[in-house]
Design brief:
The complex is a heterotrimer. Chain A is of the alpha/beta class. Chain A has helices spanning about 50-60, 90, 110-120, 135, 145-155, 160-175, 180-185, 195-205, 225-240, 250-255, 275-280, 290-295, 335-345, and strands spanning about 5-20, 25-35, 40-45, 65-75, 80-85, 90-95, 100-105, 125-130, 210-215, 245-250, 260-265, 270-275, 350-355, 355-360. In chain A, about 30% of the residues lie in helices and about 25% in strands. In chain A, β13 (about 350-355) and β14 (about 355-360) form a beta hairpin. By secondary structure, chain C is an all-alpha fold. The chains are: A alpha/beta, B alpha/beta, C mainly alpha.
C-alpha cells in the first residue's frame, strides 16, 4: 500500500559560496527523504551534516547565495500536491565539470521572489518550524501571548482578537506552561529557556499545521528541562498525531520520539529506515558511520575495557573539500580490502539493504 | 596515601549588584552564586562538578583559579592557603593551576597563527631559546594529537575539536598539574567529544594531572570522574563516588537529574518536579528568597511528605552530612 | 544572474593567501590612490622644507599673472600676482602637515590611554573617563578654536592642539568598545589565566592585534579632518596669514578674481584640497576593508 507521503524531498542540493576560498560549501549535496502522514522522522547528524540546512531549504528560508540549486520538494495535503521548488530550473543554471558541479548561475533575487510567492500560505500555516535557542527565536519586544495570537489570526480562520486570544491561552495551557493567563503577558526575557521553547511549540501548533519541523528543540536547555520538552512532544504527538521532522544531534531524543530515522553525514543521507532498525546497537546491517556514532556516545556500555570511549578518528567532514569516493572513507573502520578501492574513488548510492531500510555503503552491495 | 592537592573550605562568592545609580551601599543586592562549598581533590584524581545552569559550578571553578576573588572561605592549594594571595604573586600560582574555558575561541586570538599562540604560551613561564620552544611545541602537538600542518593556520580554519585541542595544548605548555576544565565537551559533536574525553584520560595518566571537571553532561562526568559533587543554587547538595551518585543517589535533586536523561521515560519522581521559576539570575529568584532548603519549592519529596516545616525553616538549612564511604548529602529526607 | 565559479584543484586556505589576493579590487584601488597622495604630500613637504622649489613662492612676476598651467617655466601656472603656483602649493603643505600630525598624535595617544583605562580597568576609571569624554564631546569645537585664537594668537599649532584634544573621546570610545568586545569573548580572561603579564595583554593582544586597523583608520581620518580644519580656518582668515601660503588663504585670495572669469588662482588650491582629503578618506576606507576584512563562512 503506497500512500503519497506528506513531504517528499528528492535530490536536494543547497550550496553556499565561500569568497575567501573561492569554493562551494556543499551543505546539502543530494538529499532525499520522505515523511508519511502522522509519522515522525528523526534526522540525526553532527555539525556539517546539512540537517538544519535541509529544514531551512524546505521552508524556503535560505537567503545566502547560491542557496538551493536543484531538487524537488513535494508537499501533498488533502490530495493536493504542491511543488515547493517550482520553476527552480528557470532561475538556476548549473554546469558540471569533472563530474562535479563547478559553476552555477543563479538569479538570486528572482528566486527569492518566487519562493515568497510559493511559500506564502505554506509557512506557518501548513508547515511550522521551531528553532534552537528559543529565547533568541522569539520576538523580544512583544509579549509571548501576542506573538501566538498574531500567528493564529494570520493562519487560521479565527480572526477576532478575543477568540484568538482565548485560543492562545488554551494552547499555552496545553504545552504545560503554568498560569497561562499570566504568562500570556510575559516577554521572552522573563521566561526561562524551557518555557520559551514551550511557547514556541504553542505558537507553531496553534495554527494546526500539517507538518512540524523541529530544529534541535532541546539543545541548549538544562538536562531536566530537556526531558520535559521531550515528554511534551511525545504527548502532543500521541494527542494530535502531528507529522514531524525532528532534527537533532542528540540521539536520545531521536530514539525517544521518532518512528523512522535518517542519518546524515557530510551533506548526504547515509542511512534511513525504521527507528528501531537504524538505532539498534547491533552492527550487522548498518552504515559504519551510524554504528560508530552510536558507539561513541558516552555511556557505561560504550566504554572499552581499558576505560576509553570509542571515538571516531579524524574530524567531521568539511563540506568544502568533498572527497571523490565515500564521504566516510578515512574514518571508517569497517573497510575491507575488497572494497577499499571503490570506497576511495566512487561514492555509493543509497540502496535498500533490508525492508524499508537503506544505506549508502559498498559493504552491502557490489560496487560493479 | 596520595596527597590532597586542593581543598576548598566553605567557599563563598557573592556578586554584588547595585539596585540603581543612586542606591546606597545597604541597598545592594547580593547574588550568592556560591554559598558555602567544601570539597577536596587528591593528586591524579578527577572530581566532577555537575548542576544545571545558574547553580554556581562555573563560578567555583573561576574562583579557585582566582579569576574571581572569594568573598569568604578558604582555598588551600598544594598545602598553601591561596585565598588571599595578592594579585602580584598570582602569576607564579598560575604556573601550577590552569583553566580550560567553555568557549572554544576563548584562548585563541583570531589574528594569531596557532604557532604564535603556542609560542607565546610557552614563553610566559619558561625563558627558553626559540629552538627549544619549537621542540616543545612539537611535543605538545603530539600529546594532544594535533597535526603539525595546523601550526600555520588561524583559529577560524580549525574545526571545533581541533580548537579544543589547541586550548588544551596551550594550558599544558604552562606545565600546570591541576586543571579546572569548564564544560570542555559542550560545544563539540558527539564523536569529537569522545576524542576529547579520551585525550583527557590519556593526559591524566601520562602527566599525572588532576582535574576539576565541570560539566552539565552527566554521562561524561560519570565516566571520567572518580568523585562527583552535585550543586544546586550555590550549594553542594550531594557528593560521593561517581558510581554511587549516578546509580544510588539519595538526594531528590540528584535522583531527578540522572533519571531525566532523555532516553528514559519519566518516572513518578521526575514527573512531579515543578519547573524552576524564571528569575533574574538563572533560576534564583531574589524577590522571594528561599528560606531553608533551596530545593524545597521544586522537591517532590517535600510535596509527598506533606510539606514539612523543617524543610523551609531558615534556621535548619540542611547541611552536608557524611553518611559513610565519603558519601555526603544535604537533605532532611534523603531517599 | 550571479555567477559562482569554483576552480578545481587545491582549495586555498585563508592563511596561505597574501593579503593582496584576499582583498577586493576596489579596496586595493582606494589604498593605492591614498598611498599616492600620501607620498606626494610627504615628498612635497620635504621639498618645501629644504627649499628645493622650482621658483621662490614669493617672487612676483607682474608680466605673467594668472598664466594657465603648462606655461613654460611654470608647470601649474601662476597666481594673480605672477607667483608660481606649484611652489606655493608645495609650501602650502607646510601649513597643515606637521600640525595635522600633532593633532593625530594627540588624539591617538591620549585616546588609546583613556580607552584602555576605561575598558580594561572598568569600574571607577570607566565612569570618570566616560564623564570626561561626554564633556569634551559636547563642546562646540569651532567655538573652542575661536576662543583659543582670540586668547592667544592664530597659531596653527594651537589650533591643531585643540582639534587633537577634541578628538580624544572618539578614539577612546573606539578602543574601549573593542576591549569590551574582547572581554565578552573571554579573551582577556584566558590571557590572564595563562599568566600573561598585563603589558603584553594590552599592548600585543588588544592594541596590536585587534585595534591597529581601527587606529590606523582613525589616523587617516584625523589627518583629513586636520587638513579640512586648517584650510577652512585659513580661508576665513583665522589660520595662516598672508603672505605665507596656505591652500586655504590661496583660495580666499583668488576668490576676488573668480567673478572676473579668472578661475585658476582659486581653483588650483581648491583642487589640491579636494584630491588630498579624498586621498586620505579613501585610504582609510580601503584600509578598513583590507585590514578588518569581510570574512565569510
Amino acid at each position: 500500500m503506497t500512500t503519497t507521503p506528506l513531504l517528499r524531498v528528492e535530490d536536494l542540493r543547497t550550496y553556499f559560496y565561500s569568497q575567501s576560498k573561492r569554493a562551494f560549501i556543499r551543505s546539502v549535496d543530494g538529499v532525499g527523504l520522505s515523511i508519511a502522514k502522522g509519522e515522525t522522522l528523526g534526522i540525526v547528524g553532527e555539525s556539517g551534516s546539512g540537517k538544519s540546512i535541509t529544514a531551512l531549504s524546505v521552508m524556503g528560508l535560505i537567503s545566502a547565495g547560491p542557496g538551493v540549486i536543484s531538487g524537488r520538494i513535494e508537499f501533498t495535503t488533502n490530495g493536493v500536491k504542491k511543488e515547493l521548488l517550482q520553476d527552480l530550473g528557470t532561475y538556476v543554471k548549473v554546469a558540471n565539470k569533472e563530474n562535479r558541479i563547478m559553476e552555477i548561475d543563479k538569479d538570486v533575487l528572482g528566486w527569492e521572489r518566487n519562493v515568497e510567492r510559493v511559500m506564502h500560505g505554506v509557512r506557518g500555516k501548513e508547515i511550522a518550524m521551531i528553532f534552537q535557542n528559543p529565547k533568541s527565536s522569539l520576538n523580544p519586544f512583544t509579549t509571548v501571548g501576542d506573538q501566538i495570537t498574531e500567528a493564529i489570526q494570520l493562519h487560521t480562520p479565527v480572526k477576532s482578537e478575543q477568540e484568538a486570544r482565548e485560543r492562545a491561552i488554551d494552547w499555552l495551557d496545553r504545552v504545560k506552561i503554568d498560569s497561562p493567563r499570566l504568562r500570556y503577558d510575559n516577554h521572552p526575557y522573563s521566561l526561562s529557556g524551557g518555557m520559551c521553547q514551550r511557547a514556541m511549540i504553542a505558537m507553531a501548533l496553534a495554527c494546526e499545521p500539517q507538518l512540524l519541523i523541529a530544529d534541535e528543540p532541546t539543545t541548549g536547555l538544562d538536562a531536566t528541562i530537556q526531558a520535559k520538552i521531550a515528554d511534551l512532544l511525545a504527548e502532543l504527538k500521541a494527542e494530535l498525531g502531528i507529522t514531524t521532522m525532528l532534527i537533532s544531534h542528540d540521539i536520545s531524543i531521536i530514539s525517544r520520539l521518532s518512528d523512522s530515522v535518517a542519518v546524515m553525514y557530510g551533506g548526504t543521507v547515509v542511512e534511513n529506515g525504521p527507528a528501531k532498525t537504524v538505532l539498534a546497537v547491533a552492527q550487522e546491517a548498518k552504515h559504519p558511520y551510524t554504528t560508530a556514532l552510536l558507539a561513541s556516545i558516552p555511556s557505561a556500555k560504550n566504554v572499552t575495557d581499558k576505560g576509553y570511549l570509542q571515538a571516531i578518528e579524524g574530524d567531521v567532514l568539511d563540506t568544502i573539500n568533498i572527497p571523490e569516493g565515500c564521504r566516510f572513507y578515512g574514518r571508517c573502520v569497517r573497510v575491507t580490502d575488497k572494497i577499499s578501492d571503490s570506497c576511495e574513488h566512487r561514492e555509493p548510492d543509497l540502496r535498500e539493504i533490508g525492508p524499508g531500510h537503506r544505506a549508502r555503503c559498498w559493504l552491502y552491495f557490489d560496487p560493479v | 596515601m596520595t596527597k590532597t592537592i586542593l581543598e576548598v573550605i566553605d567557599l563563598k562568592k557573592h556578586f554584588t549588584s547595585r539596585k540603581g545609580i543612586f542606591s546606597s551601599f545597604r541597598e545592594r543586592q547580593s547574588i550568592p552564586a556560591v554559598d558555602g562549598a567544601s570539597f577536596y581533590l587528591k593528586e591524579n584524581e578527577t572530581v566532577g562538578l555537575v548542576g544545571e545552569s545558574g547553580c554556581g559550578k562555573t563560578t567555583i571553578g573561576r574562583t579557585i583559579v582566582r579569576l574571581e576573588k572569594p568573598t569568604s572561605g578558604k582555598i588551600i592549594f598544594d598545602g598553601k592557603d591561596i585565598t588571599n594571595v595578592p594579585t602580584g604573586d598570582l602569576r607564579q600560582l598560575r604556573g601550577q593551576m590552569q583553566m580550560i574555558f567553555q568557549d572554544l575561541d576563548a584562548a585563541l586570538n583570531p589574528k594569531m597563527r596557532i604557532r604564535d599562540i603556542l609560542r607565546e604560551a610557552i614563553n610566559v613561564h619558561h625563558k627558553i631559546s626559540d629552538a627549544e620552544t619549537d621542540k616543545r611545541i612539537a611535543g605538545l602537538l603530539e600529546q594532544v594529537n594535533l597535526k603539525k600542518s595546523k601550526l600555520g593556520n588561524y583559529p577560524q580554519e580549525l574545526s571545533g575539536g581541533e580548537k579544543r585541542r589547541v586550548g588544551v595544548a596551550r594550558v599544558l605548555s604552562v606545565g600546570a598539574k591541576f586543571i579546572v576544565a569548564d564544560e570542555p565537551t559542550s560545544a563539540l559533536d558527539v564523536s569529537i567529544q569522545a576524542q576529547v574525553v579520551n585525550l583527557f584520560r590519556d593526559l591524566q595518566k601520562e602527566l599525572g594531572l588532576s582535574y576539576l571537571f565541570i560539566s552539565h553532561d552527566l554521562r561524561v562526568v560519570e565516566l571520567i570522574s572518580r568523585k562527583v559533587a552535585v550543586m544546586y543554587l550555590g550549594k553542594i547538595v550531594e557528593m560521593g563516588l561517581a558510581d554511587r551518585i549516578a546509580n544510588k543517589a539519595i538526594h531528590p535533586y540528584t535522583h531527578i537529574l540522572w533519571s531525566s536523561l532523555v532516553e528514559k521515560q519519566s518516572t513518578e519522581v521526575t514527573r512531579n518536579v515543578r519547573p524552576a521559576q524564571a528569575g533574574s539570575w538563572g533560576v534564583f529568584d531574589f524577590e522571594r528568597p528561599v528560606a531553608g532548603c533551596r530545593f524545597a519549592p521544586r522537591c517532590p519529596v517535600y510535596e509527598s511528605h506533606g510539606k514539612p516545616a523543617v524543610c523551609i525553616d531558615p534556621s535548619s538549612e540542611p547541611q552536608l552530612l557524611d553518611i559513610g564511604d565519603g558519601h555526603k548529602v544535604a537533605c532532611h529526607f534523603p531517599l | 544572474m550571479i555567477r559562482y565559479t569554483q576552480i578545481s584543484g587545491e582549495i586555498t586556505e585563508l592563511s596561505d593567501l597574501p593579503f593582496w589576493k584576499k582583498a577586493g579590487a576596489v579596496d586595493l584601488a582606494y589604498v593605492g590612490y591614498g598611498l599616492v597622495i600620501v607620498t606626494l604630500v610627504v615628498a612635497s613637504y620635504c621639498l618645501g622644507s629644504l627649499n628645493l622649489l622650482p621658483h621662490n613662492p614669493d617672487d612676483i612676476d607682474l608680466e605673467l599673472m594668472m598664466a594657465p598651467p603648462l606655461t613654460p617655466g611654470h608647470l601649474l601656472g601662476t597666481d594673480f600676482m605672477g607667483r608660481d603656483m606649484l611652489s606655493r602649493l608645495i609650501v602650502g603643505i607646510q601649513a597643515y602637515f606637521l600640525p595635522g600630525l600633532l593633532a593625530v598624535l594627540i588624539s591617538l595617544v591620549f585616546g588609546t590611554v583613556f580607552g584602555v583605562l576605561a575598558g580594561y580597568r572598568g569600574g571607577r576609571s570607566d565612569t570618570v573617563i566616560t564623564y570626561i569624554n561626554n564633556l569634551v564631546d559636547s563642546f562646540p569645537r569651532l567655538v573652542l578654536i575661536l576662543l583659543v585664537i582670540a586668547a592667544f594668537k592664530p597659531d596653527i599649532y594651537y589650533i591643531m592642539l585643540v582639534v587633537g584634544l577634541t578628538n580624544v573621546p572618539v578614539v577612546a570610545s573606539l578602543v574601549k568598545g573593542k576591549i569590551l568586545f574582547l572581554k565578552q569573548k573571554n579573551f582577556i580572561e584566558a590571557d590572564i589565566s595563562l599568566g600573561l603579564p598585563t603589558s603584553t595583554i594590552i599592548l600585543q593582544h588588544i592594541l596590536w592585534h585587534n585595534c591597529r586597523a581601527a587606529l590606523i583608520i582613525q589616523a587617516t581620518l584625523g589627518m583629513a579632518e586636520a587638513i579640512l580644519m586648517e584650510t577652512s580656518l585659513s580661508y576665513l582668515g583665522f589660520g595662516v596669514q598672508e603672505p605665507t601660503p596656505s591652500w586655504g588663504n590661496m583660495v580666499q585670495a583668488g576668490a576676488n578674481y573668480f567673478m572676473q572669469g579668472k578661475f585658476w588662482p582659486s581653483t588650483a588650491p581648491a583642487l589640491a584640497i579636494l584630491f588630498t582629503i579624498l586621498g586620505f578618506h579613501l585610504l582609510g576606507d580601503g584600509l578598513n576593508n583590507l585590514l578588518e576584512g569581510k570574512r565569510d563562512a
